[in-house]
Amino acid sequence: MAKKKQVGRRVEGWKAKSWYRVHVPDNLGKAYIGDTIANDAESVVGRIMTATLGEIVNDYSKQHVKMSFKIQNVTGDAAYTEFVGHEVTRDYLRSLVKRRSSRIDTIVPLTTKDGKKVRLTICTYTFARANLSQEHAIRNAIVATIAAQASAWDLNTLLSGIVSGEISRDLFKAVKTIYPTRRVEVIKSKVEQVATLISTA
């Protein structure tokens, strides 16, 4: 009997909860990325949801980019989010590595004009192996380029630059004259002080 009562209470608890449809920010078309369940709308705010960029823009070639969003507000059963970071999958990164070449990682902290503290991880892939002075020069060029542009970025501008590849293209132009460069990628971004992760998977 005790077991039946516990089951009954669990069912009643689920019935009391509501489902909320989660959408990405405006500059990604407010695409629907999944649902989350909660007792009320207030408890939904602050949750982190994830989806691949491929799912968001309906482009399978971008499935290797995992995006994270924090729920900012709720209207009815719709929850709207803010971008809080992204990361490229390890399999994709491994595919970019070539023999007798260099992978040069640069971590750049920045503050957007709307006051968001963001940490970018940027990878530079060269055609041949670079020496230490060349790696140092590439890192300096990347930091200088980001510093020159970041003051004009708000968080949405930063998101658009990552998704479109515009930031990577600008960085490529900055470093290709220093050493023969095959590719530059923003492989990770993180907005500081976000909530506990809740995946849509």
Describe, in plain words, how this protein is organized in 3D.
The chain is α+β, with helices and mostly antiparallel strands and 201 residues long. The chain folds into two domains: 2-88; 90-191, Tetrahydropterin Synthase, Chain A (2-Layer Sandwich), CATH 3.30.479. The chain is 32% helix and 35% strand. It has six helices and eight strands, in the order αβββαββαββαααβ. The chain has helices spanning 2-15, 53-57, 90-96, 132-150, 155-164, 166-175, and strands spanning 18-23, 32-38, 48-52, 65-75, 78-88, 103-111, 117-126, 181-191. Strands 1, 2, 3, 4, 5, 6, 7 and 8 form an eight-stranded mixed β-sheet that branches. Helix 4 packs across helix 6. The longest helix has 19 residues, at 132-150. The chain is elongated and about 60 Å long. The two termini are 36 Å apart. 28% of the residues are buried. Residues 1-8 and 194-201 have low confidence and may be disordered.
Explain briefly what this protein structure is:
The protein has 201 residues and is α+β, with helices and mostly antiparallel strands. It has helices spanning 2-15, 53-57, 90-96, 132-150, 155-164, 166-175, and strands at 18-23, 32-38, 48-52, 65-75, 78-88, 103-111, 117-126, 181-191. Strands 1, 2, 3, 4, 5, 6, 7 and 8 form an 8-stranded mixed β-sheet that branches.
